[in-house]
Design brief:
elongated; four-stranded antiparallel β-sheet; 17 strands; 34% helix; six-stranded mixed β-sheet; 383 residues; binds zinc ion; alpha+beta; 9 helices
Length: 383
Amino acid sequence: MLAIDTGYITRVLQDLVRINSVNPVLDPAAPGERAIAEYVGEAMSALGAEVRYHEPKAGRVSVVARLDGSAPGRSLMFNAHADTVDAAGMPEPFSGELRDGRVYGRGAFDMKGGLAAMMGAVKALADAGSPHAGEVLLAAVADEEYASLGTEDLMRHYRPDAAIVTEPTALDICVAHKGFAWFEVTTRGQAAHGSRFDLGVDANMRMGRVLAGLETLERDLRGRTPHALLGPPSLHAATIAGGSGLSTYAASCRLQIERRTIPGESREAVTNEMRALLRRQVELDPSFEADFEVLLVRAPFEISDEAAIVRALSDAATAVLGRKPAYVGQTPWMDAALLADAGAETVVMGAAGAGAHAKEEWVDLASVHQLAQCLAEAAVRYC
Ligand SMILES: [Zn+2]
């Protein structure tokens, strides 16, 4: 098996946590991903990898390092997001402190542990004289925690045959995750003085009918055939705002809805479901008026256990861990869906730890070291 430089990985992980890479959309005072991208780029250059930076928007920098193998073969991308959610309320978000085998700080678990393991895997391959075929790409991407600007942009420049996303999975292999769709419904009423029921039309009351329809639909979703790893689809009425004052009939009411999808549910199907719900309101009351908008749709993700990258990673992990990793599904959306949509056979495997988006976040250091070994061995097997 390839030799893993655990000291290097630990040092790199602590350095990564110490670089503030909070997503600047989530915290306007945050610096963006340039500093962390340059750190990764310089480290990968030092290993002999070819490094390229991509900046689809000012300050939003992704970096891709390419390590060529020693024979023609397939292209495998390791993918991690370099941004984190904000650090509000954390006493020492960028300490990178190592205590009892855990590294602490914002992003340690989600997902600088994964990024450090990827860098450790590239180092193991480089140290061994690049025994893999084809090429290994290491991508540290911007903006996954908001709109995935980074991976979306990279997929215009790279066409890897396969990808391993190192979002945390406690060293299990994630072969499916949910998608989501964001919708906005605005009901229309007629503003009037609160005393003039004869003139006013209450947009908030109209939204009540939409909410009742959504509640019925939500119950119906829970009754549908669940996905084996992800369960049933769901929806919730996430935000609502209507009306302008106590003595005024509400002229409009705006509702934002999040619909979580499972593999097999298309953008069209979930959008049509919402349109049908609104059409029914018009059938019941022809004066009912509402606008409907699709804000963002992200596809669910699923890959077969039989895919070459899944088999390669599973074999590698079995050799490294001494047990066959479980195949699991995860509920949050990930960049994996974008990579899969761009034609890369994609699978997810990451470190163990806790506290993603929470006030205390840590990653289990031993799992980061093991992950690095799994990734390096998977590259040799797959490429
Ligand atoms: Zn993440």
